[in-house]
Amino acid sequence: MKKLINDPRAVVREMLEGHVALNAGQVLLDGETVVLRADLGSPEARQVALVSGGGSGHEPAHAGYVGAGMLHAAVAGDVFTSPSTDAVLAAIRATAGPAGALLIVKNYTGDRLNFGLAAELARAEGIPVETVVVADDVALRDTVEPARRRGIAGTVLVHKVAGAASAAGLDLAAVAAEARSAASAVGTMGVAMGACTVPGGKPGFILAADEMELGLGIHGEAGVRRARFASADAVVDELLSTILTDLVPPQGARVALLVNGLGGTPSMELAIVARKALLLLQSRGLQVARAWSGNLLTALEMPGVSLSILVLDDARLARLDAPTAAPAWPGRGRVGESLPVRPFMARAPAAAAPSPTPAGQAVQREMLKIAEALKGAEQQLTDLDAAAGDGDLGLSMARAAEALRALPDAAWATPPLALTQMAAVLGRAMGGSSGPFYATALMRAARGLSDQPTPRDWANAFVAAVASITELGGAQAGDRTMVDALLPAATAFLAALDAGTAPAVAWQRAVQAAQDGAAATARMYPRLGRAAYLGERVLGTPDAGAVAATVWLSAIGPT
Predict the structure, then answer these.
(1) Strands 129-134 and 304-311
(2) CATH superfamily assigned to domain 358-555
(3) How confident is the model at residue 389 (pLDDT cuts 50, 70, 90)?
(4) pLDDT of the residue at 346
(5) What is the C-alpha separation between 464 and 453, in angstroms, rounded?
(6) Do 388 and 544 meet the contact criterion of CB atoms below 8 Å apart?
(7) What span, in angstroms and rounded, lies between the C-alpha atoms of 173 and 185?
(8) Residue 434's CB: how many other CB atoms inside 10 A?
(9) In 40-174, where do the E strands start and end?
(10) Is 51 left (phi over 0), alpha (psi -120 to 50) or beta?
(11) Lowest mean pLDDT segment, chosen from 164-178, 231-245, 511-525
(12) Which of 79, 61, 217 has its CA nearest to residue 149?
């Protein structure tokens, strides 16, 4: 996998240098891969120092949580490798005053050994040190005893609780007690849609296109089990059911939710996951007092997500709400009691429409055939659009098909009403530029139609519709757009009718002209739309919008 690095051996140091350069409240400890708060002050006046860390590759953890109200120091090892005992000890020495230091350790063997030995060495030097181990991975509930579970994203919440306790002036024993209590009240489980790759290495596992990895850790390793790929809602149900079975929060309990991206999951998908998680928790009788979503403790570029649930009481909620200057903390996390939806201010309802006329019914039949054709062409249009655009045309046309099918019978009362109603729904359903183009064309076509249009009326309406597209978008024949299919079709249909050709034959000539025009776009240099940004790279592939036009034109069969 390509990675934007220099030397794999220098990744951690260069990453930390860039991180502290961007965050004025942090400094890098000379000679060590340790990030410190810049405002530590004199040792005698220091609060209990919070020190955490682990292997790199989990950014923004752990350096992103260094700041007032959270960590005093973060110790970074090599990618997915525990930091050395010397580095941890250096962090303790740099941050701890008479109040001592609390080490927050994720439950991995290397971390426990190196942080544990550093704690012993610090105590031998007279520095008070306590250690809290986070083992929140509930995916291992049927595999190992609780004390041997891995520490994963729930650790971020423990950092916040302990950091606020330290900032409040509590002594070492009290801060450690709050951190241990939080660690025992949090459960996490993750899922991955693919592996990650360490710099200079190979993916940790390989998934088929229809597989996902459930219950994995944060070091690129495989999970507890492999399962068939499922929808976001099904994944959330699986993760939360496991977490809640393990935590067993009482009915009506307040909880905090953490939706954590593993590095390669877009915010869009995290929001979809958060939506379902909030609804599911509420349906289980739990009060979601706080919720956050984002990349908080990652596994390099792994596509996946983990969910963490922290059971709250008044004191723990106050710790989560306490201020912090840590740059990666995601904010207040306040959520509404239910999904906030503002009522849509619709127009006053129109008078009841009459039953469809035979001409209106004929339009409905043809439009349903169009809907079927567009749905069937979804993948073809997606592939064509991806070659020269953003790949959304197939989905957009599928949404158009669904919108057409959903129109009530009353919408088809007459041809002009039918086209107007189609324009209204397609303008909303279709994304990008397609929606406005088709909505405008349908509105223009409807304007000149009677309730009982003749074939010539339809031909004139078709010509007017195409003219409206060129007026709206500026495209002309030869620009490599849908116009290159629609304009020849409209022209051929009208010309054939003028020559006395039967309407059905005239329409077949129109369809053939559209298909020829769409095929010709493969040889056209793009001058408009996203394809224009790619220039010659799109040559050889026909325009997706033009091909889409041939799909629905071919579905129509006038008699």
Answers:
(1) unpaired
(2) DhaL domain (1.25.40.340)
(3) low
(4) 46
(5) 15
(6) yes
(7) 18
(8) 22
(9) 49-56, 73-79, 101-106, 129-134
(10) beta
(11) 511-525
(12) 217
In the chain, the amino acid numbered 132 is: V
Residue 235 to residue 269: CA distance in whole angstroms: 12
Q: What's the mean per-residue pLDDT of the chain?
A: 92
For 282-296, what is each residue's pLDDT tens digit? 999 999 999 999 999
Q: Quick check: is 58 catalytic?
A: no
What was the pLDDT predicted at 428? 86
Q: Taking the CA of residue 461 as centre, how many other CA atoms within 13 Å lie in the half-sphere pointing to its CB?
A: 20
Dmax of the chain from CA atoms?
Answer: 104
| 428 within 8 A of 453, measured Cβ to Cβ | no
Residue with tokens 């996490």: 188
The tokens 């655009």 sit on which residue?
A: 389
Q: Classify residue 408 as exposed, middle or buried by CB count within 10 Å of its CB (0-12, 13-18, 19+).
A: exposed
Q: 103: closest CA among 159, 38, 25, 46?
A: 159
Beta strand extents in 232-286 (DSSP E only)? 254-261
Specify the domain boundaries for CATH 1.25.40.340 within the chain: 358-555
The residue written with tokens 């909880």 in the block is: 255
Contact 25, 68 (CB under 8 A): yes
> At a CB cut-off of 8 Å and minimum separation 6, what does 168 contact?
322
Whether residue 534 is predicted with pLDDT greater than 80 in this model: the reply is no
Burial of 203 (0-12, 13-18, 19+ CB in 10 A): middle
Is the CB of residue 175 less than 8 Å from the CB of residue 276?
no
Q: Which fold has domain 8-196+208-321?
A: Rossmann fold (3.40.50)
35 and 72 in contact (C-beta within 8 Å)? no
